[in-house]
From TrEMBL:
Molecular function, one GO term: hydrolase activity, hydrolyzing O-glycosyl compounds
GO biological-process terms attached to the record: carbohydrate metabolic process
InterPro entries listed in its UniProt record: 6-hairpin_glycosidase_sf, 6hp_glycosidase-like_sf, GH15-like, Trehalase-like_N
Span of domain GH15-like: 224-290
Record domain Trehalase-like N-terminal: where: 4-193
Protein name (database record): Uncharacterized protein
Pfam families (UniProt xref): Glyco_hydro_15, TREH_N
Length: 292
């Protein structure tokens, strides 16, 4: 079962966005744009409709304690898992694409002791309906998945194997170790997206978001809350055109069993106007002007 909508955190690259569950599962991602078909659609169904989960392998044992937060002024999300044997941090982000390639990056870092981890990648194109053809990369660093015009490549710092139409990894993280996972989207008729250095992308992403967030106007005791809000609003903008989506989701009913299942992945006039007003009041005059 998917989590509650309030348990999901948002990450994005100003062209699309992903929703990360409290349990380390990414249950929603439309690629390559906000309005594209989803490759992870577990939010609307089950894990069989696509997800990417990385978390402690606690089945049969004690459930880990979880704490998470965004890094200040950024859209970089840290989730900390604490178990009886140790603690790890899972860092999730999407760097703003500057070369046409969209990357979803996850880094597992050991904080204390050692923790047995399990990764499960379930790629399902066309909103959960299409299982891709999966093969190993020639250099052995990961896998490639193809479905019609779509190509997704995953490069990982640990071995990945196929298991029941899923790509699974089991590994142990010790204190001080850092293990990267990079999922990249591209067109299937073009060469595979190039390898990414997760640490470099993380540094670039943190710097870029913090520089942008630092321009937020002071709002007294509410400054931090306002800054976090404008970062979220910025994440809902489509950089190539300046369009603003109302939300990155679709088909979530206003009421369970109800008929109002709107698609919010478009520029609704009311929502766009409210976003522009918020950006103006927060001091982002140039950003607001670029979207009018």
């Amino acid at each position: 079962m998917p989590g509650r909508i309030e348990d999901y955190a948002l990450i994005g690259d100003l062209a699309t966005a992903a929703l990360v569950g409290h349990d380390g599962s990414i249950d929603w991602l439309c690629w390559p744009r906000f309005d594209s078909d989803a490759v992870f659609a577990a939010l609307l169904g089950t894990p069989e409709h696509g997800r990417w989960r990385i978390a402690p392998d606690w089945e049969g044992g004690e459930r880990p304690r979880i704490r998470r937060a965004y890094r200040d002024g950024t859209l970089v999300l840290d989730t900390e898992f604490r178990t009886g044997s140790g603690a790890v941090r899972l860092t999730d982000f999407m760097n703003v694409r500057d070369d046409g390639v969209s990357n979803l990056v996850r880094v597992v870092t050991g904080l204390r002791g050692e923790v047995a981890m399990r990764g499960e990648l379930v790629l399902r194109f066309d909103n959960g309906r299409v299982i891709p053809w999966v093969s190993r990369l020639p250099d052995g660093t990961g896998i490639r998945a193809v479905a019609g015009p779509d190509l997704v490549v995953m490069r990982a710092g640990v071995p990945v194997r196929g298991e029941d139409m899923r790509s699974v990894s089991r590994f142990v993280v010790k204190a001080g170790e850092s293990i990267p996972f990079v999922l990249s989207y591209g067109a299937s008729h073009l060469p595979a997206p190039p390898p990414q250095v997760a640490e470099e992308r993380l540094a670039e992403t943190e710097t870029g978001w913090r520089q942008w967030a630092s321009r937020c106007a002071e709002a007294g005791p509410w400054t931090e809350a306002v800054r976090r809000s404008v970062v979220t609003l910025k994440a809902l903008t489509y950089r190539p055109t300046g369009g603003i989506v109302a939300a990155p989701t679709t088909s979530l009913p206003e009421k369970l069993g109800g008929s109002r299942n709107w698609d919010y992945r478009f520029c609704w006039l009311r929502d766009s106007t409210l976003t522009l007003m918020a950006l103006l009041r927060a001091g982002y005059v140039e950003d607001a002007a670029a979207r009018t």
